[in-house]
């Protein structure tokens, strides 16, 4: 498999769902499970529901926050049963799988890590969690009955992704979209890592800097930020800049903080 996909469970309250998620992942050839503020993943029920995917549960890594869990990821896909106001672009599971297939076929695929983030059974992902996502995925379903069981949602997403990245043997080869091949069919030369989308950690540093400048210049009133912060964040997350582009923006922000006289 060319691109690493990690499944991140946030706030899961039923241990059985963690077991079901591990089973869903493993059947589709995925093993990286990250946990944020969940119930016990090693309970008897979790292990029983995993039906033998115990290794996935045992290797799962726990994090103190979603921010930490996705710090090393360049693409962060939140999942939601409903469209959320002001979230990043909403796409179907198939559309996201197509995007991941493109990524998987690219020359720099091995340096990419994609996070799939799943929310709490009752409330889903909070707005703060969605703010950390570069895309939002919704499994298309009955508009009047759109909330899947958490384990089932992981299964559908894992299946779509397995088709995208060939994580399990396919009946027929899945073509790699032409975009990633040269006209002669040769793989493109690897990209400079600084040209890849920035990591979530780098984005957080950028947002802190941007916020500081917006407040200090009076552009943003911290006592009345309204939706501005979220809109700005959404703009940059839905087209995440590369590390090189981020340093250009950071330079611009620093120059705004310490302007030099034009020579
Ligand atoms: N009311 C919540 C439902 C939570 S269901 C909401 O609107 O999000 C628990 C989790 O299962 C969700 O956070 C999401 O990760 C996943 N899920 C359930 N139904 C889904 C769907 N139709 N599309 C994508 N993810 C879904």
Give a brief description.
The protein is of the alpha/beta class and 263 residues long. The chain has ten helices and seven strands. It folds into two domains: 162 residues, Alpha/beta knot, CATH 3.40.1280.10; 65 residues, Helicase, Ruva Protein, domain 3, CATH 1.10.8.
Tell me what you see in this structure.
- With 263 residues, the chain is an alpha/beta fold.
- It is globular.
- The protein starts with a strand and ends in a 6-residue tail after the last helix.
- It folds into 2 domains: 4-165, Alpha/beta knot (3-Layer(aba) Sandwich); 193-257, Helicase, Ruva Protein, domain 3, CATH 1.10.8.
- Strand 1, helix 1 and strand 2 (32-36) form a beta-alpha-beta unit.
- It has a 7-stranded parallel beta sheet.
- Helix 8 packs parallel to helix 10.
- It has helices at residues 15-27, 44-50, 54-59, 66-69, 93-104, 127-130, 150-165, 200-216, 228-237, 243-257, and strands spanning 4-10, 32-36, 61-63, 75-79, 90-92, 113-118, 135-138.
- The chain is built from 10 helices and 7 strands.
- The site of S-adenosyl-L-homocysteine has 19 residues, from strand 7 and helix 7.
State the main characteristics:
single chain; 263 residues; alpha/beta; Alpha/beta knot; Helicase, Ruva Protein, domain 3; 10 helices; 40% helix; binds S-adenosyl-L-homocysteine
